[in-house]
Amino acid sequence: MHRYVLRRVVMMIPVLLGVSLVIFTMMYFTPGDPARLILGDTASEAEVEALREEMGLNDTFIVQYSRYLKKAIAHGDLGTSYVTGRPVITEIVARFPTTMLLAMLSVIVSVLIGIPTGIISATKQYSIFDNMAMIFALLGVSMPNFWQGLILIIVFSLHLGWLPASGFYGPSYWILPALTIGTGTAATITRMTRSSMLEVIRQDYIRTARAKGQSEIVVILKHALKNALIPIITVIGLQFGRGLGGAILTESIFSIPGLGKLMVDSIKARNYPVVQGGVLFIAVMFSFINLLVDILYAYADPRIKSQYRRRS
After folding, report:
1. What confidence tens digit (pLDDT) does each residue in 171-186 have?
2. 143: nearest Cα among 187, 111, 173
3. Element (H or E) spanning 158, and its range?
4. Nearest-CA neighbor of 20 among 55, 59, 58, 71?
5. What are the structural domains of the chain?
6. How far apart are CA 156 and CA 145, in angstroms?
7. pLDDT tens, 268-287?
8. CA 17 to CA 3: how far, in whole Å?
9. Do residues 286 and 292 lie in contact, with contact meaning Cβ atoms separated by under 8 Å?
């Protein structure tokens, strides 16, 4: 098991290197002069050129990328914000807990809605509930997050006045953003749960469990759901990672001071180091989430854990 985890960590290295290369290349060829942006339009050409030389912007692409990679790996230095002058990693770490909380809340909402709905749809296949659940899933997958967020604000904040429209200062502020991300994710989990459960409940061991006189709840939850969890865990892990990045628009709509809003504001201000560092940070977190999902497979299915032991 330990060798498997180590192997997965090693496999993450080329992925992260590739992400860093792609985002650095995009930022490198993006129009605009960082030195001019920092000094403003009133600065002379000599001052701009001196700052460019000081920042190493006159170096070749390879030299700049190698320097960036060396600082990021050796010191965790992702550069300095053009707007605030603070280290990028400091601004990311300050905003990330808010984004993480939003992603966790959205996953909780999606799991509480998606898994029970998927189970009932599978056990009541082609019933009215099943048809309604599939319609809900189709709408949830098709509906853009930013549009849904605006509708929720109009209904629950402007017309009904039940919930605040912006901010992230307490539980009442968390509901609308979590629903905005969570309902779309719940639709995907519903479809995957239903599909996986339909495949499992037709197996011989499910018929055997019923023949032994076990109650339907025990058969569904203990025998069927446990063996259907692998694809469901995969979807939940992917949706959690998607929540870290997909929360960008949601945070902007609800004025949530998280990593997503920081990146949107940085894009508007052409604050390239923050955008670059934010994307790389999310990629690292997404890779670790995928690693955690792979480890959870062993606890959901003992057969996978036994395979790890034999390989070790």
Report:
1. 888 888 888 888 878 8
2. 187
3. none
4. 71
5. 2-75 (no CATH), 94-311 (1.10.3720.10)
6. 16
7. 777 888 888 888 888 888 88
8. 22
9. no
